Amino acid sequence: MIPAAAQTTNAPEWSVSELSGALKRTLEDAFGHVRLRGEISGYRGQHSSGHAYFCLKDRDARIDAVIWKSAFSRMRFKPQEGLEVVAIGRITTFPGKSTYQIVVEQLEPAGVGALMALLEERRRRLTTEGLFAEARKRRPSFLPRVIGVVTSPTGAVIRDILHRLEDRFPRHVLVWPVRVQGETCADEVAAAIRGFGALSPEGPIPRPDVLIVARGGGSLEDLWGFNEEAVVRAAAESPIPLISAVGHETDWTLIDHAADLRAPTPTGAAEMAVPVRAELVVQVGGTARRQAEAMLRLVESRRTELRSAGRALPSPEALVGVPRQRLDLAWAKLGPGLLANAREHERELKRVADRLARQAPYVKLAEIRTRLNAVGDKPRICLGRMVADRRKALADLSARLASGRDAVVRAERVRIATCRERIAGLAGRAERSARASLDRHAHRLDSQASLLASLGYRSVLARGYALVRDDRDTVIHAAAEVAPGQSLTIEFADGIRRVQAEGARPRRRPDPLVQTSLFDN
Prior knowledge:
Elements: H1 4-8, H2 16-31, E1 33-41, E2 52-57, E3 62-67, H3 69-74, E4 84-94, E5 99-109, H4 112-128, E6 146-151, H5 156-168, E7 172-177, H6 185-197, E8 210-215, H7 229-237, E9 242-246, H8 254-258, E10 261-262, H9 266-273, H10 277-312, H11 316-358, H12 361-375, H13 378-455, H14 457-462, E11 467-469, E12 487-492, E13 495-500
Parallel strand pairs: 3-5, 6-7, 6-8, 8-9, 9-10
Antiparallel strand pairs: 1-2, 1-4, 2-3, 4-5, 11-12, 12-13
Helix pairs in contact: 5-9, 6-7
């Protein structure tokens, strides 16, 4: 039995998809783009697909939020857990769960307090990593050759820096133009710092000795690009000493903590980078004068000390008196000493002469002659005996060689005779084999010649046919291929004739002669 309520209602029937689509259109038409303020909850970073999912909540309610991958990459301000933000996007539904959500297109912190909280949290985290440690900071060189400036090329900052450098000490300046405000500010500044650090000192573009990152004053939102983590890490990793000059003296950004020096203004950064040339000239001149005066005083002091030391030294006569007296005494002893020395050498010479007389060469020669006479004919007799022994040994060896040679000759003659017999047998076999092979090839050649004569086109010509070729020696199969006036060659069985075609080109016959195929070969 049908209930009464079902009999009286005339409400339309919806499918689940139709109802979900109608609710989606109604919600999007009623709200469209909205600005929604709330606290980020449940954010765990980007999904593997690149999208980001989280919730926005306040004290009494919450709403799901999603940031698509394309919008997330364009956002200057990224979501963080527990941060109060203002989300700009459109309200829609997700039929798969029957829920509504906001598709976020832009994200802003909810007021300066939120930015300060985010800034303080980032500062604490980077401090824990050691990026702001004083131990890693370096002092720029006293007088850099090249100065790199990262700033906007159109603002007053670069003009103030160049003007101040021109007043103090002109140096070579390289400017890397960047945006100092906006979504791409942080990426451009970080790329500029790393780009200067990647330059080679000996390259065509000189590597700066010091970097200045400068920007004029502004609000916290305007200076936010210099608080981004990418800029801070690039400044901390820079191989070149870096001076931060962002904002006015009361403005502080995170790059100021990571830089090696912090200048209150861009002009102050230029003053930190180079000294005053006029002051250096005056200082060097004063130092040179003091050095000259000190040298004069030192020379005068040394001269006074030398004079005092000279007065304390003995006179030249006193110094050479004793040596002169010793020289006179030695001169008086020199004559007798030389005479005594000559007499001593004369006595030694006479002793040596007596010894040589006793050992004269003719005495030694007489002794050697006597010894040779005592030897007499003994060497000749020994030599004859040795020659006879060698002659007998050679005769024995010759007899042995002769007998061995005869045995070798006989063996070789036997081996040669055996080889001749084998060669004769092999020659007969080779002759018979060659004759049989020639017979087989002759029979095969005769068979092939007979087959060629029966299948070749010349046997066809012998039956009364002719073979027609054009001037390129190409076989013509049909009359339609012959042009009027064309030279032709006709081959008969008994010879070849050259002719010339006449008349109009004939129309091709529908079925060519069967004999044409015989001429293709």
